[in-house]
Amino acid sequence: MAEAGGAIYQTGILRNDYGRMLYYAGDERGASAAIEQALATSREMRSPSMEYLCYLAQAEIAMRRGEEETCRVALTYCLQIGRQQGYRNHTWWDADLMAQLYAKALEHEIEVSYVQEQIRCRELVPPVAAESLETWPWKLRIHTFGRFALVRDGKPVKFEGRTQKRALDLLKALVAYGGREVSEQKLCDALWPGTEADDARVSLKITLHRLRGLIGHEAITLRESKLTLDTRICWVDIWGFERAVNRLTATGNALSTDGYARLGDRMLSLYRGSFLGDDEQTFALSTRERLRGKWMQAIAALAGRFQHDGAHDRAIAWYERGIEIEPLAESFYRSLMHAYQTLHRPAEGLGVYQRCKKILLAQLQVSPSPETEKLAQDLRTLGS
Fold it and tell me: How far apart are CA 51 and CA 76, in angstroms?
């Protein structure tokens, strides 16, 4: 009807909506054609509002199809227009969908300030995929790698005094035990070992009240004697790290080499040192070792993938990071030697062997394995 009446603008807007409906109906080819036609109309009319909606539709469809690069490009154009025009709303606004698209935008560092402002303005709830995004405008951010720090409403939380320290110990233990549905009994055993059960539970109630006063009452829920950090409010660095590691192991070869590189950079930006630094409480030690093990597995997977794809310089850089974290991991030295062997750089490979031999002898009083010794001999032959 709009087309028959000569209403060009309305025709373009409706054709874009029609394309989205075709996609939901299963006609992906028809959907793409309709949206492209609407996009052409928007350019002819020089209509930023229509162009914005067309790119938004393309980004939505690409995201649902798992086409990461297409989604990134469409979001870049869409959100640039949105920022320039100061858009705060649009037709067929859907909060859950926009939260997912905004999370994608933050992941790719697209119009970050504008996106953060939109999230705050529309009070969007973060999708599960946002757990690894420090740039989502969280009400509370909890940093545990390398140190313990809190940021509430964008401002660092300062804490001092014995009562605050105990409250923060409760938060540390809650995070160490996963932050979700942690039983009161488990926290009592960790923080007040050897104390009568009733006395420990009273101490927990008092400490929880103080902690809520420090970080916000809404940040922690208590249901059926279990404490949970609200994921709509709280960002915890280890959650983002573990999500990234799980994505690495789950994707197999689905990601491109550059995709692996971005995922590795994300993990590297999060893992800034051991869990809770030098805190020696029992709950910290066990979680620290578990996360450290995951980091080592992730490094091995990343470096192995880069080496398989022929990106040897990237592989070398990641093996070196692995050695820096775990100087006694002989497998990393050996993989590094393999990389230099492939690149026909025997001198550097033998240098790695000498480092390995020296550290194993000094720390464990053992020699490298026969496999490592054979690889060293191969490098000597290559260099002769």
Answer: 12
| Cα–Cα dist 316/323, whole Å | 11
Calpha distance 274→277 (Å, rounded): 5
1 found inside a domain: no
- Average pLDDT of span 286-315: 89
Q: Cβ of 197: how many Cβ atoms within 10 Å?
A: 11
User: What is the residue type of 268?
Assistant: L
Residue that terminates a domain, selected from 217, 235, 253? 235
E strand segments, the chain: 140-143, 149-152, 155-156, 182-183, 220-223, 226-229, 234-236
Residues 83 and 179 in one domain: no
Residues in the chain: 384
Q: What are phi and psi of 139, to 5 degrees?
A: -75, -30
Decide if pLDDT at 252 tops 70. no
Q: Report the percent of the chain where pLDDT is more than 70.
A: 98
- Are residues 33 and 72 located together in one domain of the fold? yes
Task: Give the chain's domain count.
Answer: 3
Is 3 part of a structural domain of the chain? no
In a domain, 100, yes or no: yes
Copy the structure tokens of residue 248. Answer: 């690495």
Decide if 56 contacts 19 (C-beta within 8 A): no
Residue 146 and residue 49 share a domain: no
pLDDT at 163: 67
Do the beta carbons of residue 333 and residue 358 sit within 8 Å? no
> CB–CB of 232/220 below 8 Å?
no
Looking at the fold, whether 221 and 254 belong to one and the same domain comes out as: no
The answer, yes or no, to whether residue 250 has pLDDT greater than 80, is no
Sheet holding 182-183, edge to edge: 182-183, 226-229, 220-223
- Quick check: helix, strand or coil at residue 145? strand
Residue with tokens 């991991």: 329
Q: Which of 77, 109, 130 is the last residue of a domain?
A: 130
Task: Quick: pLDDT tens for 98-127.
Answer: 999 999 999 899 999 999 999 999 999 998
What one-character DSSP code corresponds to residue 5? T
